[in-house]
């Protein structure tokens, strides 16, 4: 048993390193980047680059993925210029009206624009262009708590310590209501004897996701143990893998989920 307790963490670090070197070729500033290119390329514009690190530091996942209604799948929302101009999708904030930290948020698409304004188009329609951005990842991440994987930032700690305060409300898209409470940790048994079990924290997830991001879409049942899934499905981007591996810390960080020591 003692051997087990020593070997398991050790082998997990090894597996993590192997998995990381095989899959984590994405540099930290690109982790969570979505390239949106359905409609821009056909109209002769550069595809749009959307960075999660920049936006998740300012807003909760719930705000965008429930209130504003972006799909949690690249390309699936069919965001387009007309919808943005009507105040949906990016236009829910990027409308030259909504205020963030006392400044109006720059507008998204428009039908006509001057040469000067085209710099604004470039801020989003930026793939393959050398665009001067207001925010850069390196400056942003200075002084934030670090981990080894993904954005290499410990988002959990950053929120707890108050480095970031993601807003959960945007005028025009959200309704004010008291958040539902659910503090129960759910133990999830790993089906492999050598693999430590998982303890899922509702409290920690609800800060970012509320309830509606996960129930009923990703986890249809709220009855513990009712849904059956495996690590393979998670690796395939289902269940925990909807977020972990794309935006939340990646799956190579085995020990962060598999925390309960093997008995
Ligand atoms: C806040 C980000 C943002 C800004 C700024 C922005 N756009 Fe867009 N735009 C988008 C997104 C997202 C799409 C969808 C991209 C896709 O699917 O390829 C899009 C699509 C488009 C399209 C494709 C046609 C269509 O029907 O969707 C055109 C044309 C367009 N934008 C014009 C502009 C112009 C002109 C400007 C500058 C005046 C601009 N956009 C600024 C986000 C932006
Ligand atoms: C400012 C809005 C915004 C915030 C905040 C936000 N997202 Fe997203 N998310 C988007 C957009 C836009 C897309 C792309 C949708 C599309 O292409 O149709 C996206 C896509 C995704 C995808 C799919 C990525 C892929 O490569 O397929 C995942 C997973 C995701 N988000 C998870 C999260 C999580 C987890 C959080 C919170 C930590 C979060 N998002 C916060 C707007 C946001
Ligand atoms: C919930 C509000 C919200 C939504 C929705 C949102 N953004 Fe933003 N975004 C912001 C804020 C606030 C900033 C910071 C603006 C500033 O400081 O000028 C920002 C900044 C940006 C920047 C930074 C440009 C730079 O110069 O560094 C880009 C690019 C961007 N957003 C693209 C998008 C795209 C594309 C979408 C839609 C797919 C989108 N955003 C949806 C709130 C939002
Ligand atoms: C990140 C995803 C996620 C979020 C966000 C989330 N849940 Fe869950 N929830 C789960 C998972 C995973 C389980 C366990 C399911 C299983 O084991 O089959 C669960 C189980 C439950 C259960 C059954 C627990 C038990 O002990 O039997 C309830 C009730 C529940 N959730 C309510 C909520 C409420 C209320 C919220 C918002 C405060 C919420 N959930 C937010 C993923 C989530
Ligand atoms: C809807 C998106 C989403 C889903 C689904 C999800 N998570 Fe998370 N999880 C997050 C975000 C966002 C964080 C904050 C840290 C980060 O972004 O890296 C987080 C943090 C965590 C943490 C660190 C905090 C803690 O509790 O100690 C663990 C562990 C974790 N998730 C495990 C899981 C497990 C296990 C599942 C599946 C049962 C799951 N998550 C499903 C989004 C998600
Ligand atoms: C985001 C959280 C998370 C991360 C990170 C994670 N796992 Fe898992 N893993 C789970 C959950 C949840 C289960 C339980 C699924 C079930 O059987 O109900 C699981 C189950 C397993 C199992 C048991 C077999 C099975 O399919 O149930 C093995 C083996 C496993 N994981 C290996 C790994 C390895 C190796 C890594 C790192 C490379 C890893 N996991 C990273 C959440 C995670």
Write the layout of secondary structure elements.
Layout: H1 2-23, E1 33-36, E2 48-51, H2 52-56, H3 61-68, H4 81-85, E3 99-100, E4 103-104, H5 118-124, H6 137-141, H7 155-160, E5 185-188, E6 198-201, H8 202-209, H9 231-235, H10 254-257
Give a list of the ligands. Answer: heme C
Structural class: alpha+beta
CATH topology of the domain at 33-141: Cytochrome C3
What portion of the residues fall into strands of 2 or more residues?
5-15%
Distance between the termini: 7 Å
Number of strands: 6
Summarize the main sheet: 2 strands, antiparallel
The low-pLDDT segments are none
Shape by Cα distribution:
globular
Number of H- or I-type helical stretches: 10
CATH homology group of the domain at 33-141: Cytochrome C3
Q: Briefly, what CATH class of the domain at 33-141?
A: Alpha Beta
Query: What's the alpha carbon Rg, rounded to whole Å?
Result: 20 Å
Instruction: Give the quaternary arrangement of the chains.
Output: single chain
Q: What is the level-2 CATH architecture name of the domain at 33-141? A: Alpha-Beta Complex
- The succession of helices and strands, N to C, reads HEEHHHEEHHHEEHHH
Q: Average pLDDT, to the nearest integer?
A: 91
Q: Could you give the order of strands across the largest sheet?
A: 1-2
Helix content: 25-40%
């Amino acid at each position: 048993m003692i051997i087990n307790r020593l070997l398991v963490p050790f082998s997990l670090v090894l597996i993590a390193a192997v998995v990381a070197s095989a899959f984590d070729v994405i540099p930290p500033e690109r982790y969570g980047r979505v390239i949106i290119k359905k409609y821009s390329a056909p109209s002769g514009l550069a595809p749009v680059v959307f960075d999660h690190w920049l936006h998740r530091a300012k807003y909760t996942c719930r705000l965008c993925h429930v209130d504003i209604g972006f799909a949690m799948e690249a390309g699936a929302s069919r965001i387009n210029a007309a919808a943005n101009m009507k105040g949906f999708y990016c236009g829910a904030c990027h409308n030259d009206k909504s205020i963030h930290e006392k400044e109006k948020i720059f507008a998204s698409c428009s039908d006509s624009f001057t040469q000067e304004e085209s710099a604004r188009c470039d801020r989003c329609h930026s793939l393959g262009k050398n665009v001067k951005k207001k925010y850069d990842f390196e400056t942003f991440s200075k002084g934030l708590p670090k981990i080894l994987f993904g954005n290499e930032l410990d988002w959990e700690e950053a929120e707890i310590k108050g480095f970031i305060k993601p807003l959960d409300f945007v005028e025009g898209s959200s309704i004010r209501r008291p958040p539902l409470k659910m503090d129960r940790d759910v133990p999830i048994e790993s089906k492999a004897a050598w693999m430590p079990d998982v303890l899922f924290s509702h409290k920690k997830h609800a800060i970012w996701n509320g309830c509606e991001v996960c129930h009923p879409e990703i986890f249809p049942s709220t009855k513990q143990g009712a849904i059956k899934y495996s690590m393979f499905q998670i690796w395939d981007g289902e269940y925990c893998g909807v977020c972990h591996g794309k935006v939340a810390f990646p799956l190579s960080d085995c020990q962060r989920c598999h925390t309960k020591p093997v008995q």
